[in-house]
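Audit log entry. Action: structure prediction of a protein-small molecule complex. Ligand: adenosine-5'-triphosphate. The ligand was supplied as SMILES and no pocket hint was given, so placement is left entirely to the predictor. Protonation state taken as written. Sequence taken verbatim from the request; no trimming, no tag removal. Recorded inputs:
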Amino acid sequence: MNDIVSLKNVAFRRGENEILQGIDWRIQPDEHWGILGLNGSGKTSLLNIVSGYHFPSSGEVEVLGNLFGKTNLPELRKKIGFVSSSLDRFADFFNKEKVERVIVSGKFASFGIYEQVAPEDWEKADHLLESLRLSYLKGKPYHLLSEGEKRRVLIARALMSDPKMLILDEPCSGLDILSREQFLGVLEEVVGSKCHIIYVTHHIEELVKEITHVLLLKDGEIVAKGPKEDVLKPELLSETYKVPVTVRWEQNRPWLAVKEETTIR
Ligand SMILES: Nc1ncnc2c1ncn2[C@@H]1O[C@H](COP(=O)(O)OP(=O)(O)OP(=O)(O)O)[C@@H](O)[C@H]1O
């Protein structure tokens, strides 16, 4: 079977800045990836390449069977959903829209509904509300939801267009522990819908069982990549985070701590 994502010796430069260098990365079917790295390590730049918003300065990129340079990138972007805490700043566009209308707008990649909605689109929104256990929100204006509910509705909105890949860029930032766990619970449904996840976070405990592989980025280069259990090792994470850390596994989830007696300057 074809790779979902294939990056070969990819570099990304802006002016004098070498933002990404020597990136070799494959995502194969049935893999769901987490990406970890300090602020400025290049995570967002990498996501922007994979989702067809940035073109690499050199190297080869193929995503969902589309070889960059020989493909229509706007068409590729339609197959990729995106949920980010930074989408919150667009929340005003949803204004006082009802939850189900926010979800249906995902089909048109717009912030409101300006096109004819088919009955099956409303049915699909209902189905998504049900499968993500959000039916109790039907009919509620989006702006009245809690932050956690909003993020889960944004997942439903992203799934409305049947994406082949869902990019989650720090989707839990700003959520309390309960909202975070409720959010992470929806990943099971996403994986069940045959959608590939790329999950960027600063908190390794968010790498729940659905996330099978991890890529570590440091200063625009890959420190390690592969199955989660092989990559989330103290030595590799200490290198990535430039601070000595330990990793503890509890209920199949990794937890990070800074090593005792470390003084950080
Ligand atoms: N268009 C650009 N022009 C110049 N420098 C850029 C550009 N985009 C990103 N950079 C720089 O590239 C580096 C990587 O940025 P990027 O946003 O990819 O990092 P990140 O890992 O997503 O960081 P964060 O965790 O803070 O979101 C940073 O030093 C950033 O300032």
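Audit: result stored. Residues 119 and 125 are 10 Å apart (CA to CA). The pocket of adenosine-5'-triphosphate is lined by residues 14-15, 17, 19, 37, 39-45 (CB under 6 Å).
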